[in-house]
Design goal:
Layout lengths: L1 H11 L5 E4 L39 E5 L2 E6 L2 E6 L4 H12 L4 E5 L7 E6 L2 E6 L2 E7 L5 E3 L9 H5 L4 E3 L7 E5 L5 E7 L6 E8 L6
Parallel strand pairs: 1-4, 2-9
Antiparallel strand pairs: 2-3, 3-4, 5-6, 6-7, 7-8, 8-13, 10-11, 11-12, 12-13
């Protein structure tokens, strides 16, 4: 479908560039409301994300992945796997999207207390200062690693990926298989296959079921 192809072109534009990875700390090992996918990003050579903040704000691309996120700026793609320090992730995403983080906290989540940084259409989820999940609505310069973004319909997505509707108390919840064997989940609104995808998520999120 055209909508999916356009988004795919945006995300795949990051391919073929130099890739670096921020150094993640050890995982917390805490249980999650939504289990994080078993897939993790590749582990290229470690690099400091601080240099990314020197680029003009709002000129980057945020790539969402089942095992974390990545930010592409000035031809360099830097990965931030789950477990990366909050300061590094917030700084890079804020520079890429040209928006300041809006910080919130919830003390009562199924996985324990969580902190959140809302930056543009992306909400980054943290526990004990480490990235553990993300959720994204539709927005410019944001797409998954396989080229999917909110705004398309479930029918559009089914033409590209294998979609599974969740047995959930939350309306419109679904998941789809990423080509690397991992999964990304999301929510749609509207009836049937024509329902519009309004958000995508991966990792630990604070949902009340």
């Amino acid at each position: 479908m055209r909508a999916v192809a356009i988004v795919a072109a945006l995300a795949l534009a990051s391919c073929g560039t130099r890739e670096q990875s921020a150094e993640p700390s050890a995982q917390t090992g805490e249980a999650s409301v939504q289990p994080a996918s078993t897939g993790t990003p590749a582990e290229p050579a470690a690099a400091s994300p601080a240099a990314m903040t020197t680029a003009p704000a709002g000129t980057g691309l945020v790539v969402l992945d089942a095992g974390g996120i990545a930010v592409r700026m000035k031809g360099i793609r830097t990965a931030f796997p789950f477990g990366t320090d909050r300061t590094a992730v917030d700084s890079a995403v804020a520079a890429a999207l040209g928006a300041r983080p809006v910080l919130t906290r919830l003390g009562e989540c199924g996985a324990g207390a969580m902190e959140f940084s809302a930056i543009g259409p992306v909400k980054l989820n943290y526990q004990k200062g480490k990235l553990v999940g993300w959720m994204s609505e539709a927005g410019r310069n944001v797409a998954t690693s396989d080229g999917i973004a909110p705004g398309i319909t479930l029918d559009d997505l089914r033409h590209e990926r294998e979609v599974t509707l969740a047995r959930s108390t939350l309306p419109g919840e679904f998941s789809y298989a990423v080509p690397d064997g991992t999964t990304i989940s999301g929510f749609s609104e509207g009836a049937g296959a024509g329902g519009k995808i309004v958000s995508l998520y991966a990792g630990v999120n604070c949902f009340f079921r």
